[in-house]
Batch of 2 targets.
Target 1
Amino acid sequence: MPVDTKLPPGSGLFERIQGLFEIVLDVPDEISDEEARGVIDVMPPDVAHTLEAFLHPRVRTAALAFLKTVGVWLKNAKEAKSKGKKVILVPFNFVPELVHAFESAVPLTSEILSTLAGNASEGKGHRYWDYAMGIGIPDHLCSASTIELGSMLSGHDFEADAIISCTAGACDANSKIHEFVSNYLGIPQFILEKPVDDSERGIEQYRRNFFALVEQLEDFLGEKIKEDRLREVVEYCNRSSELHHQLWELKKNSPCPVPNIYNMFIYGCRFTQWGREEAQRAMQIMVDEAKRRLASGEYPAEKEVARVGWLYTSYYIDFGGMFNWMEEQGYTQLFDVLDLFFPEPISTESRETMLDGICLQARTFPMTKQMGAESMSLAWIDDAITMAKMLDANCGVFCGHHACKQTWSVISIVQKELMDRIGAPVLTLQGDAWLSGMTPVATLQANIDEFIKNVVAKKKKVKPRARARTEG
Amino acid sequence: MDVASVKVGSAMDAVNKVSEVVENDYVKKWKESGGKVLGYACVTTPPEIIDAAGILPYRIRALGNPNTEIADAHLARFNCSFCRSCLQLGLDGTYDFLDGFIETNGCDHLRGMFENWMYVKPADFFHYVKVPHLTTEDAMNYYVEELVFFKEAIEKHFGVEITDDKLKAAIARQEAIRDRLRQIYSMREGSSPSFTGAEALSLFLLASAVPYDDFIELADKAIAERTGTGVTGYRARLMLCGAATDELDLVRAIEDVGALVVTDALCYGARAFWSPVSTEGDLVKSLADTYLKDMLCPRMYEDFPRRRDFVLNEIKKADVDGVMVMHNKFCDVHGVDNVQLRLDLEKRDIPVLQLEKEYGSRADIGRIRTRVQAFLERIGGKS
């Protein structure tokens, strides 16, 4: 443990964020414009700016539902120890429902905490990143995990009881920082490896790895997953999955009735409270709101100019400046890579069918499925093209998060294949999706604007070249 | 003899000449006589399986090549410059002498390198060995199967049969190569090391780039030539740890300022040859044990204590004054591991210089030299 920490006690990321979300839990489900303004005005500038995006009238109802979902998730983690439960730190591409299935554990997702810090805390999470850099962690690590883990490393944040690392095979950066934190703080680490092997043999290997993890967790927690509780969790998962598919269907309409920021709400629910009533409630509200908007023809711009598939993550440094700004220009964000999960209904027949169903979802989780595939580009291209065709996307944007070496290493292939196969041009941006210091939002907006106005809007319909990649 | 004026003998001259080029004269001769050559990059690839098929295993290298112009159109600036350098040489034709490639999921950058290489310039033979990141019994079984698939793929494509006898003979040959390397490294442990760090790297590079007989001949000559001689007059004995580096110029630059590299824990170095392969029992399983279970690479996410202990043991064995831990910019596996290693070594009062660098960048050499000079001043060192 370092002696000279620059972060005073009580200034850990989790504590600060959880404190703010305590307030959110007391806010009514529906609030007026005046009340929203009142809440925004009492917040520090960084937080107020984020709230402006969330409490915008056209997304407010769903945003409040989402924020409360997260608020409950944080509160459960906060109260875990006093209730004799353990906190399991998980990465974004892990199925939280597996942890929810235990009575004695709650999941906390590092990337979600980093995202919250970047938007709902004064200073935008930079202090935690800086702390990690101060220890010597290289600046090419992924800020998505390193912001939260930097806070943990300071010794002034909550301490997880165990870490699940499930990016072995899909992301070196994520795997290494989890390993480091585990060693540095002496916290046990459980690794779920995804073989870079999509054959039946690879799938079976993953299944064995998954069931081994279940056993390890049961041993660690001293609790065998009970079938009834698992069934309750899985039933919530199934209902949320159904709502997720309904949102996909709604997105097929033009103009798109699903606001851009919902994409983040959807996977925010997926990565935290899937398998819980709170996530299902937020998903239901998103569906209801989108249906209402479809019926009333609501769309914030005069016309829908571009239907954009974000090939990697979004930017999480300014929700208003990205999600809301885009749709106000008529630029619909149909999905980003983190939305690319396609949950199938899980059979609740037995403990094994339920665990098998969760295992399948874990193996096909966003990023695990694409970057953990035998070829990093093939699965990614297939999913991007499937979604682009299904939702009639006419262009792609690659956010170019600098730490993501896997996507950077094959984006040239993806870009070319998308143009060749479906005639979709792809804009490549550069920046850090979780740190505001690298590329200002204004620059990102200008790049997106130029691309859509000069390339997408003026593009004539061309027949895609008949070329398809085959496994080499 | 003084570190700055080490006499270059004829054997080491020959070694350096071969090690400084990608397609060396021995490879050319091998090809001219109808021999096949397979390229691999990662230490989790057992060259024995290639050797047993009568094919020359060749470890892909970039030799400090700073030019990545063609590669940068495919990989990004955010990818490791070693992989970009290798890709450059693949796409510019330097590696056209290879008859095929073996990929492993060594790291994210390496995966990207091979994916782009094969996308732009598909090879007649390409096989992907999927290597687990754990060494549980289940993971080891999976890797054993992968090695069997690897063997079968070679047999099928090249129309050869790899019998147990052939595999045993190949293991013996590769073991003899590793024995020479171990001997060369041992000759650096005394107070007057027989080889400089740059020479040891040169010999290491030779070992995975020429046919067996040629290596043994050259290595034995170099060993004989240097037996009883030693380097003196250096300021400090350093150990190099970290990322894939085959940069002879870098090691020379470090030694030019008065350091002497006496051992290492590098991917192109000691990590690749210390563990022997048993010829008892199932040969493929023996290979799996050496190339995965015993492997010392930060791509393994549960193995840090073993990697650290290897470094500590080397420090003791080679009487190291200070440790340089290096990683190529954007290398996550070494970048993070090096922090943990530095913290652990510093707790033991072992001086450490942690360095992030661009691979092959000559512009970086001046900065590195300054850092090393400052490090030498900090640790004092023997004269």
Note: Residues 322 and 350 of chain B are 6 Å apart (CA to CA).
Target 2
Amino acid sequence: MKNTAPLSAPDLDFETPAAKRLRRYRRFKDRLASAVVGVGGISVIVAIMLIFIYLLYEVMPLFHAAEIKPWQHEGEEVVPYQRPGADADTWYLTAEEQAEVGLRVDATGLASFFDTRTGEVGLQQMLGQTEAGAVAFALGSESERTFALAHADGNLTFAKHQYKVSYPNDVRTITPSIAYPYADQELALAPGVGNTELLAVRDSENQLMAAALDDQGQLFVSRYSKDVNFITEEVEISTDHLQLELPTEKVVSLLISPETRWLFVARSDGLVVSVDLRDFDAPQIHDAVRVSDATITQARFLLGGNSLLVADSQGVTRQLFLVRDDSNNYELKEIRSFRDSTPSEIAEVAIEHRRKGFVVAEGNGQVSFYNSTAENLVLNEQLSDSGIAYLAMTPRANGLLLEQADGKVSFWKVENEHPEVSWSSLWEEVWYEGYQEPDYIWQSSASNDDFEPKYSLAPLSFGTLKAAFYAMLLATPLAICGAIYTAYFMAPAMRTKIKPFIELMEALPTVILGFLAGLWLAPFIEKQLATVFTLLLVVPIGVLVFAYGWHNLPKSIRLRVSEGWDVVVIIPVVIILAWLCLPLSSGVEQVLFDGDMRGYITRDLGITFDQRNALVVGLAMGFAVIPTIFSITEDAIFSVPKSLSNGSLALGATPWQTLQRVVLPTASPGIFSAVMIGMGRAVGETMIVLMATGNTPIMDLNIFEGMRTLAANIAVEMPESEVGSSHFRILFLAALVLFAFTFVVNTLAELIRQRLRRKYGSL
Amino acid sequence: MNISVKEWFKSGAPWVWLTGGAVALNVIMVAGLLALIAVRGLGHFWPADVLQADYIESDGSRVVVIGEIADSEDVPAIQMREAGLEVAEGVETVRRDLLKVGNRDLLGSDFRWVTETGLQEIEHPPHLFVAERREWGNFYGFLRQVKQAGELVGEYKVGDADAAYDQLYAELEQRLDRALDIHDQIKDIEKHEIGAINATLERLRLRERSLELKGQLTAADQADIAASRAEQDESYKSLQARLEELYRQIGRDSLVAEVSDGQVVEIELSKVVQVFRPNAMGVGTKLGFYFGQIWAFMTDEPREANTEGGVFPAIFGTVMMVLLMSILVTPFGVVAAVYLREYAKQGTMTRLIRIAVNNLAGVPSIVYGVFGLGFFIYFLGGNIDQLFFPEALPAPTFGTPGLMWASLTLALLTLPVVIVATEEGLSRIPRSIREGSLALGATKAETLWKVVLPMASPAMMTGVILAVARAAGEVAPLMLVGVVKLAPSLPLDGNYPFIHLDQKFMHLGFHIYDVGFQSPNVEAARPLVYATALLLVVVIALLNLSAVAIRNRLREKYKALEH
């Protein structure tokens, strides 16, 4: 219809002030909405991305290189100062907890406490209670702050440097002093000892032991047994001496192990001799190991006194410890060696007080920081041009005192937070002290300070994959077969009921599955192990037998169940079959396994059987994953265009052939992505594994043993982990690994699914 | 029509049947699981008959046992013989029952195994009564006396008429009601009134410390605070006096009962929660009792390290957390979805973001927990404490796991669910409708607000409900960010500021984990865990079903527009 009449302008004025105001107001609202939605939307998306960034931010410090720079004091760098005390060789240099007060013991036997930042000398005293001068020095223990001196008159002084912290006027003041734990006892070295040249000392709970090498080449060992008087509770000391018949030329270091059983003698010709002092009256020369082809310059204990660090003139430091084999024999073995890119003769080795780390100073003035177990060269820096005479780490490993060859002492700030973490310590086999061989070990808390926590992610990753593998073993066939039937053979009316029913399980909290797995399924399986395996055999065969029988039934009965409703018939059949399995399996068990399959497995096959094992986890987690895989696979198969399958059927293919040759290949990317997403879910599942396994971090494929997964490990250990520690960051790393893994897997699956959708969108 | 096996296999039919078998197995597993939880969970509350029998021990001695059968199983005869029990030749399995005998204080354990053949002269005497106690679990025995302040009030001697027993029992019930009444009063005072005083005192301490930190603590303030403190102390003292009186009253009555081995025990009524005689109950009474038990389970507080009593604080904590979470997640999720679908330029970038958001739904929940602990609690919470609550330091206020951080973490976890669902709803709305609205002169914001969002509301609603269902069942991240096994008080109470976002809370899912795996008495607690699990399943199934229902209804409403 054509309207020819001119449109008369409606009697409306759009330009009234009110209308203008309204328009302005509406425009303002529109802009405001855009701004709010834009800012809100972007910030939400950014917040989500923040997860990844934050995890990375927490993990990054693990891989930061260590740094060293001059110590800052009151806003200025500490300038090297003249070494405190006498102008003689340094026997010992150390600092207290706060790294504010240092101690230098020099070759005259003078102990000088000094301010580490200014070099200002505080308390100074000659060590020892005898008039005779000191001739040799030995370190007792860095962590207990003990050391000993041998005097020219053949006496021994055992001393301890200690510090009292007080807060007068709210200012921290540290007062150092020297104490003599055995002040009221006479500690004499063996009679006949000459001028001691090398000394070793070790104070254990019930005895003090010293080894002295004198200028005539005699090596004496003295044992001071401590007997506590029951009445006065005073310590009385009885002394035994012993001379060791050893070639003593070229000895550079003597070391006594913490339990005072072993004496190690390091010689400049590259040999390390170990002497077994367990039977003090009949010491045995246990072993002589050639450690180096070059000259050994120094040997020291690593923290804990289990490992020897042997440095040589070619710039190589080797770590050795005694390895005990199955027949209880000890053997001194080289575990690993350390060198930097430009090795040169090692002058000094200093150890960290609380970690298995150490620092070596080379003759050319280079200083290298290493971590022993991580096999990690943390830092390598030229700190002096004139050569290095002595160096010491502060107890918190945050400072380095360095005495140069020209007698100046410099003080350095060290930032070295996580030296124990390296690629090799996280993912490769590590040979820990006290172990027979290298192994993958996760043990985040150590029994005492002398042993380090062990952070191998390998057993956890292995456990994660093992759990996921067994879960997928159950879930994949069941879910995919189920989806095939539901999507392709099932009557539509039934499909609309069955599909949501199975999908409902996806919403079931996993804590419930875990609880059932741990408290119901695990004991059930332990008791009915044979039933589980009989079921695996009987149900498929039974269904086939039934189907064949059904097929041969007269049509009148068969056609009562219309096409696509067969499941209604199968459900009772499966239930009956499972029911039959119970008596059947006990029969089978009687015949094959003497009536007790679980006992048979442990006794006759020698396989460990945990009640909460991978089988239980596989069943429970498989159950949790089934709905995920089922739902996506079902969608993929159902969305295959009907024209394709109808064409195939029209050409005479059977429904099964059509499914096999047409439908499944078409839907295969979708099925693949379903499996991937299911896998992602199984890998990250926490509660089921936490509750259905024993959570032991072992590496064993055995289906009857448990595992510990990354996710469960985080749940168990995260709340107790100290913020900012290596352990804390490694747990973040585990979370990041999980995140990255599932994210990548899901993205792949999603891309495949989208491609599939585009491909069939046109059909 | 008979065909050979070979031909039959060739036709592919067996494989179809096998896939059908897989479906059947899936369905059976799902249904079986639900049935298992339902039966075990609901069975717990049924007042089962208590049997009394002569039991022949393995060494031939005869004892009287009283208890209810909790479980039965068949054990291979070999195992029993190995354990030193005599089993007749030719018997392959022995049926044995797990008897809940209660009286843990007398017998050492709540349960004992008995072989069915050893149980003789089984009877269910109607006089037997069960007393649920606050400590030591259930008590089973025969009522003999009721006492008031040590004086005998009523007595029943063996051989007296049943009516006498009933009378004595009625007396007991009446006195128990009185004791329970006083118990409620005590709880009320301890929880609410004294709790309020403690909260006030803590606030005073913080105010003082805060002023001190700012250097503004004047003598006037100090006097003021001291006065308030004195006032609180005063009211505390009067409450204390009232409590003492109530405690004296509640300890007045006691019952005397005879247990299976003839021992006579006296139990104070203040220690009893309820008494009942299952053998004397008809089906109707039992049903009433049954629902009463279910109600008590849902509304009571837990007792005995969570192994007895109810789960009310856990239900409350779960609901509270989920509510807070949905308040947080809904606006953010919807805004993000609207931005992605309506405002952002559609291209590779939005497609990538969409995939990323989609995939975040598949990231393990524990990763969110780690993020929540590190970022929300240690970083954000730590800084909030420094800035706003310096007076409470070193005790953290928000720098420790709590309700707010748990809700926030779960909001982040469920954000993808809401975004994806809302986006789907938005993409369903035809362009023509938007264009129609714009053509009529509406601005983009008006179109969005008046046309698009209402039409997308079913999808949004679905998203939120699915998010709630997921959040209600998550436990792993909560273990890191705020749930505890036993919270001293609810996160919502009458003390300022009423909602305690910084408090830790209890949660149904964690309750299951904790009671099932960390409790000292797993065997006794197991039925309770099943009941809790059932509750959680029901809640989550209902939420999911309502999501479906709402979606369908709203879809129906806007169906006319969808073409």
Note: Chain B touches chain A through 102 residues (CB under 8 Å).
